[in-house]
Structure formats: C-alpha cells, structure tokens
Amino acid sequence: MSAASIRLAVILSYFAIVLVIGALAFRRTPSTAEDYFLGGRTAKTVVLFMALFGTNITPFVLMGIPGLAYHHGVAVFGLNAAIVVLGIPLSFWIIGYPAWIASKRLGVVTPAELFARRFDARWFGWLMFAVFFIYTVPYMVTAVAGVGIAVDVLSEGAIGFELAAAGILVITLAYTSLGGMKATMWTNVFQGAVFLGFSLLAFFLIADDFGGLSKVMQQVHAASPKLFERPSDGPFAPGAWASWALAIALTVIAFPHMLVRIFAAKDVRALKNACRYYPLAMIVLWIPAVLFGMWATLEHPGLEGRASDAVFPMLVLDHLGPALQGVALAGILAAVMSTLDAQMLTLSSMLTRDVLPQALGERHPVGLGRLFLVVLALLTWWFVVNKPASIFKLAGVSFSGYVTLVPTLLLGLRWRRFTVWGATASLVLGNLVLAASFAGWIPSLGLLPVAWGLAAAIVGAVVGSWISPATAPGVVEAVLGPVERALGRRA
Amino acid sequence: MRYPGLRMSRGVEHGLFWAAVVALLIAHMFGFGQGQRPLLGGWVPLDLAYRVAWITAAAVLVFWMTGRLWPDNE
C-alpha cells in the first residue's frame, strides 16, 4: 500500500466516523428549532467543554501559531495562550452565565434574539447579525484556508488548495445541515479527542525523531537564540502586547457560536466545569504548537511571511509515517470542522429567527437554515480561493471586530439603564473607529486598533444610553429580572 | 446564595479576587529573556516556564471563582 493510499484511508475513516455521528444525531433530533439549533439545551460537562473548546480551536492554533512562533519564538506563547486561560473563564462568568440564564428563561436561541428582546427592538437583532456576520466570515476563511494549506502540503500537491477547501466545506455542510447542534456537539467530542490526542502524540514523536526534547531545543537555542527572547517591536511592544491581550481575552465570549454553545448548557455545573478544564487543555495544545514553529526553523529556514503557516504539516511530513500523517490531517480537519460547523449553524439560526420575516422563519426554520448554509459555504470558498492574508492577520481583524461587541453584551445583561440607542452607538462607533484605526487614519499611540475600537464602543454605550430615553421597565424586567435574582442582587 | 447573611465577607472576598486578577494582569506584562542561561531541565525556555507558572496561578483563580464566587442559581 502506498503512502498516499494509507493517508487517504485514515482520512476517509475519520470522515466516515464524523458522518455516522452526524447521522445518528439526525435520527435523534426532533424538528423543533430549539432542538435543531441548541440540541434541546442538554449539554453536560464533557460535551459542553469539548463543544466550547473545539469551537475555540482552529487553524489559528494549529497552523497560525506555529507559523508565528517560527518567526518570533517562545514569546508567542505568552502573547496568546496565557491570558486566554484567565480571560475565557472570567468572561463566561460575567457575561456567559447571565446570558445563559436569560436565554433559558425566555426560550431564546440566538444572541441577536436575546438582545432584540432585551430592548424590544427586532431591528437591533438585524444589526447584531450584521456585525456577527462581518467578523465570522473572515474567521471561517482562516479555518478553511488552514485546511487547504495542510492538505496541499501533506498530499504533496496531489490535492490542491482549492479542492481541499471545497471538500471540507461540503462535508461540514452535510453533517451540520442534517443533524444541527446535536450533531455538532457529538462530533466535537470525537474531534476534540482527535486533535488534542494527536497534538500530544506528535509533540513527543517529532521531538524523539529530532533526538529528544533537550537536543532539539538546544539546537534551536544555538542556531536562533533570538527565538528565546521577547522581541521589543511589533505585537511584542508593551502597548501592542497589552492591547492584543485585551483582544484575545475578550473576543471569545463575543463569538456568536460560543454564546450559542453556552445557551446549550444543561446546568450551571456544566458551565463551571468547562471553565475549570480550560487551563490544562490550553497547556496541552499550545505548548506543542509554539515549539513546533521553533523546531521548524532547523529544517526549513528562511520562510517568509505567510509561508510559515505551513510549518506544522511540513514537520509532520518530515518526521512521521504515512498513517500518522493521515491522523495529522484528521486532527487539523477536526479542529476546523468543530469550529466551522458551529459558525455555520449559528449564523443560519440567526438568519432564520432574527432577520427573515417572522412568519417565514417560524414556518420553515430548519429548511431555510439549511439553504443559508449552502450560500454561506459558497461565499466562504470564494474568499478562500482569492488568497487572503496570513491566518494570524485575518484572525486578528476578526478578533478585534468581535471585541467591539463586548460592551453591548456586558451592559445589556448587567445595566438596566442601558438602552437600544446606547447599544447601537456602541456598535456603530466601535466599528467605525476600529476600521479607521486599521486604515491608519487615527494615530495608534503604540496600541493596536482593537484598543481604540473597544474604547469607542464603551463611550458610545455609556453616552448613548445617558442621552436616550430609558427602555420600558417591563421589557427590561423580563430579561434582567431572572438574571439579577440568580446573581443574588434581588430577592 | 452561598453566603446568606455574610454580605461583607462576600464583598471582601470579591475584592480580594479582583485584586488578584489585577496582579496577574500586571504580571502578564512581564517576561524572561533567556540570554546565556541554560534551558530549564535541558529543554524549557525560561519565558515558557514563567508562563506555565502564570497559567497555574490563573487556574487557581478559576477554581476560586467557580467554587466560591459564581452562584449555583439557575
């Protein structure tokens, strides 16, 4: 059996397992919108954690981080991984928990629906959908582009970038449109196990093939000592470092697909346990990702720009046999699919419930959702084949955009005086300033655009709420009453 | 709630928790250059060891938060 056939057999086995899980979920999913989009709100600890963590892990980690560590070394771990371990649990507690309570009490399925109810303004749901859509599509592009690169390298050019990108979209589309949330959560448990397991296995096997951990690290230290120092420029300068910490710590709670997965939690215990598992899982995944990038400098020196996004599959090709190369690809596919499915499902649920005319959305919620998934997949593929920027840069734009939603999410669930005009001013102003900052129209003063976008969003939220009339007390009470009682602020 | 009748204690505990969060955020701004020093255990860069220690401290805060500050109410 040739190496290519072995790799193909492993990948086909992986796809077969994912599709079988999707089909089983399809058979067990009633056709109500709550079951299709939220899996009936039954996710317990392991399923919820894998769904949240899987949703959080994309080629940004498996491809983009080794690519960045190839250029900048060990400081990439501090830049990205550590702060997330604190930021994600804190934001789950402060925003995710009240959002989960309100969504459960009101029976809402999407974040846009929750905030439209919070302000009694359906049009605000459209605005939220627009912002979520604008920043989710580039994030999806990073995922699919990552697969394209990995398949291209690991198949040694036999399967091209465009074909691989189309393939991943079609398969994700198939199981997501069939089985909805239940399918995505069940497959995420399997996918999470695949990419966490493979990442650890590859770490030790590749290190062993280099002659051991000590040997490879000392070789890198001798050859490229600068990879062991924190650079003082670019994203590592103090202002940029602090603002990127802000972006990466706050962005996750504003992923619409993350909020929807929080809504799917069965109970508060599952939410808390998911937070507790995060630190260990982050260490297991991120240390190998950063060190892979550093090791690749020994064998593939001189890569420039986004060419370094391919160093992880290059190492796999150099050091592992064909079966494990197949597993590596399955691991990357797993990371991509576990995010892509959630993104697709969430955008489609928001479209059918929050954007389309109510009568239409209520009559055919699942059918229309599936139709939208096809259009979304085509749009993503078009962007991918038009060769976007590096994975890290695209993710940076996307993460920064999501952060402009954080003041609305927080104040909408914690401040009774927060109004729909405050929220609108926050989203509009935050995104205008963010765009102007990315374009270089306003001085950065050493900070990244995300810091200016967030500051503008906060100002817009507070000033907009102060100068606009208060929301009707009954409307606010319907959403915040249960939240405040759960938080112990009211009897 | 977890602490009926202990409002002040709860307030103090929240204050301590957030002070610890701020301390960790400040610590996040610092790091270690390797220079000519040897790798820890022969393979761990100093900055990586510092970050893992930071994550361990953050994990302690997460357990504190989920165990004592985050209510169980639904």
From TrEMBL, chain A:
GO terms for biological process: proline transport. The keyword Transcription does not apply. Pfam families: SSF (PF00474). It is a multi-pass membrane protein. The chain crosses the membrane at residues 6-26, 46-69, 75-102, 123-151, 157-176, 188-207, 241-265, 277-298, 323-347, 368-385, 391-413, 420-442, 448-467. Its main location: membrane. GO terms for molecular function: L-proline transmembrane transporter activity; proline:sodium symporter activity. InterPro entries: Na/Glc_symporter_sf (IPR038377), Na/solute_symporter (IPR001734), Na/solute_symporter_CS (IPR018212), Sodium:Solute_Symporter (IPR050277). Keywords: Cell membrane, Ion transport, Membrane, Sodium, Sodium transport, Symport, Transmembrane, Transmembrane helix, Transport. It catalyses: L-proline(in) + Na(+)(in) = L-proline(out) + Na(+)(out). One of its GO terms (cellular component) is plasma membrane. It is found in: Cell membrane. Belongs to the sodium:solute symporter (SSF) (TC 2.A.21) family. This is Sodium/pantothenate symporter. It comes from Enhygromyxa salina. The gene is panF.
Automatic annotation (TrEMBL), chain B:
This is Uncharacterized protein. Keywords: Membrane, Transmembrane, Transmembrane helix. It comes from Enhygromyxa salina. The chain crosses the membrane at residues 12-32, 52-70. It comes from the Bacteria.
